[in-house]
Specification:
binds zinc ion; alpha+beta; 14% strand; 41% helix
Length: 233
């Protein structure tokens, strides 16, 4: 067993969840699993179909995105993951997809408004849509700047990446994270579901009101923080 086999297996298993959950087609998307104390993460190799992946194919990189171990090239989005792990020390998993409804909101360049309690169970605010990158950033280091754009979006809006564990990147798609690779996949699946629900809601009533603050607080706090009481003890 190599030192990082556990990380690679966690990364591999979480990547396989994406096609199982219907969140990716072909080689779209990627998941990574990080060790924050060692400042390394395992990530899906670039352009390999999901049904051909093996745990040993996962590429180990450091937080600058440099390959430490692995024969294949890491995902083209590796630098985006690296920026988020560096910035947010409490996250150890990141997922990215091009799932249909989340991408539709990203392409519309719209935050997903908090319309119901399903949304509030996971985050107490709209799902932010980070603005499209300037040309100089696209030409410079596109993937790293995508990470910087996500971090800047959270800073500008005074959002906590601990509370809102998902984001849309304008004209691209969703990223989500959590305290494991499995949690990151879970959050990106929830994001797709919330995106679909919000779209349907606006089809029925384009003037549907936002969830009122009392219900946002009730639903978010019963699942998160000191007073949480949802689920089993
Ligand atoms: Zn992408």
């Amino acid at each position: 067993m190599g030192k990082y086999d556990e990380l690679k297996v966690a990364c591999y298993e979480s990547n396989l969840q994406l096609p199982r959950l219907g969140l990716v087609k072909f080689t779209f998307g990627n998941v990574s699993a990080a060790d924050q104390s060692e400042k390394v993460f395992a990530i899906k190799p670039s352009g390999v179909p999901y049904d051909e992946l093996r745990p040993a194919d996962m590429v180990l990189v450091d937080f600058s995105g440099k390959v430490i171990h692995g024969k294949l090239n890491p995902s083209s989005d590796t630098q985006t993951h690296a920026v988020l792990y560096t910035e947010w020390h409490f996250i150890t998993g990141i997922a990215h997809t091009h799932s249909t409804y989340a991408v539709a909101w990203a392409q519309a360049q719209k935050d997903i408004p908090i319309l119901g309690t399903t949304h509030a169970d996971y985050l107490p605010c709209d799902i932010p849509c980070a603005p499209v990158l300037d040309d100089n950033k696209i030409d410079a280091d596109y993937e790293m700047e995508t990470g910087n754009q996500i971090v800047k979006c959270f800073r500008d809006r005074n959002l906590s990446a601990n509370e809102a564990e998902m984001v849309l990147v304008s004209n691209h798609g969703p990223f989500a994270w959590g305290n494991s690779a499995g949690k990151a996949v879970y959050h990106i699946a929830i994001l797709e579901e919330i995106a679909r629900m919000a779209w349907l809601t606006y089809r029925i009533n384009p003037d549907a009101p936002r969830l009122k603050p009392s219900l946002v607080n009730k639903h978010f706090k019963r699942k998160h923080g000191d007073g949480a009481y949802y689920g089993q003890k």
